[in-house]
Q: What sequence folds into this?
């Protein structure tokens, strides 16, 4: 699986959009970009995933660059409850493929 | 569905004792993952199963660790003998065939004294 690079930490004001970047320059054509988050002392929670098109769901939006070498997770209106570690993962979406986490980005939403 | 259920939630044991962690995946899910999380090493994949068969155990730290999945609704992670450095939070996760996301349990916080 391709490796990812994320900033170790970011701050965001409550109510503002949080934009979390991820670099995955070695991504291959059949690898997807996944985002998970982990709120303190809980298990990780799936947020969103995509291949090459931008994706949006009730939690967030995922913007993937045209060359697919980087992506941005957008939380449109961050709340204090969005404070968590956010993991960007690149992996093959095939049956039973393993899911490997990196260090992630600590997002602190401040009032 | 109640989600992925792990037991116990907390375990404190003495060095040298055997520890067994349990996981009940979501019904119908075909893949099961065991992770360990520490401040120093982050979230590490220990082993994962597809259809009850271990696929990749390269993350298991040493022979003291073993994992089994006797059926689709139950898995165990055993540490024998336990050591203080095994202290961590252990997570179990499951996902459906052709999945898009993995669902995590609440974890077991293990303390070996």
A:
């Amino acid at each position: 699986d391709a490796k990812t690079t994320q900033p170790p930490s970011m701050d965001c004001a409550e109510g503002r959009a949080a934009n979390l970047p991820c670099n995955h320059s070695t991504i291959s054509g059949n690898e997807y970009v996944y985002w998970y988050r982990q709120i303190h002392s809980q298990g990780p929670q799936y947020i969103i995933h995509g291949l090459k098109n931008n994706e949006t769901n009730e939690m967030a939006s995922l913007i993937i660059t045209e060359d697919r070498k980087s992506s941005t997770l957008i939380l449109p209106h961050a709340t204090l409850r969005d404070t968590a570690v956010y993991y960007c993962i690149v992996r093959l979406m095939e049956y039973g493929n393993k899911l490997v986490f990196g260090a992630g980005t600590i997002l602190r939403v401040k009032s | 569905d109640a989600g992925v259920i792990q037991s116990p939630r907390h375990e404190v044991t003495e060095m040298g004792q055997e520890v067994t962690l349990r996981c009940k995946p979501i019904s119908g899910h075909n893949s099961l993952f065991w992770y360990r999380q520490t401040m120093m090493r982050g979230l590490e994949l220990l082993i994962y199963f597809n259809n009850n068969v271990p696929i990749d155990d390269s993350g298991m730290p040493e022979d003291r660790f073993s994992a089994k999945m006797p059926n689709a609704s139950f898995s165990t992670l055993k540490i024998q003998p336990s050591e203080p450095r095994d202290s961590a939070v252990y997570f179990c996760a499951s996902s459906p065939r052709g999945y898009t996301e993995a669902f995590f349990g609440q974890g077991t916080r293990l303390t070996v004294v």
